[in-house]
Amino acid sequence: MKIGIVISGGDVSGMNNFIFQIARQANADITLFNGGIPGLLEKSHQDMAWRDLVDYSITAVPIITSGRTSRKLQRSEYEMHAKKKLKSLRIDVLIMAGGGWQPAVSEYP
């Protein structure tokens, strides 16, 4: 399984451990999108195996940059850009954490 992760709303303590625990519990490889939703749309990403995340889980230096924008992802953007990029990267699940826009995006298949 391959999981994509997008963080929004700024850096928080425990973010690296959050990402590590997702990878560990799902026994999955992770694709991190830097810069939040804009990073997803621009395909600014890095792939990481869960074993590579162990060292990051105990450090305070963020492994991923979060996105902070008031702009909402529109359905047309999702259909035309994000969905295709997720498919091309073979991502099975997208997890979005932080910020207040996830409920609006979570309705998209």
Explain the overall architecture.
- Its EC number is 2.7.1.11.
- It is an enzyme of class 2 (transferase).
- Keywords: Kinase, Magnesium, Metal-binding, Transferase.
- InterPro entries: Phosphofructokinase_dom, PKF_sf.
- The protein is built from four helices and four strands.
- The protein is an alpha/beta fold.
- The chain has a domain at 1-67.
- It has a four-stranded mixed β-sheet with strand order 3-2-1-4.
- α1 (15-26) links the parallel β1 and β2 (29-33).
- The longest helix has 14 residues, at 75-88.
- The radius of gyration is 13 Å and the shape is globular.
- The chain starts with a strand and ends with a helix.
- The model has no long low-confidence stretch (mean pLDDT 79).
Structure described in brief:
This protein has 109 residues and is an alpha/beta fold. It has a domain at 1-67. Helices cover 32% and strands 18% of the residues.
Layout of strands and helices, then pairs:
Elements: E1 2-7, H1 15-26, E2 29-33, H2 37-41, E3 45-48, H3 75-88, E4 93-97, H4 102-105
Parallel strand pairs: 1-2, 1-4
Antiparallel strand pairs: 2-3
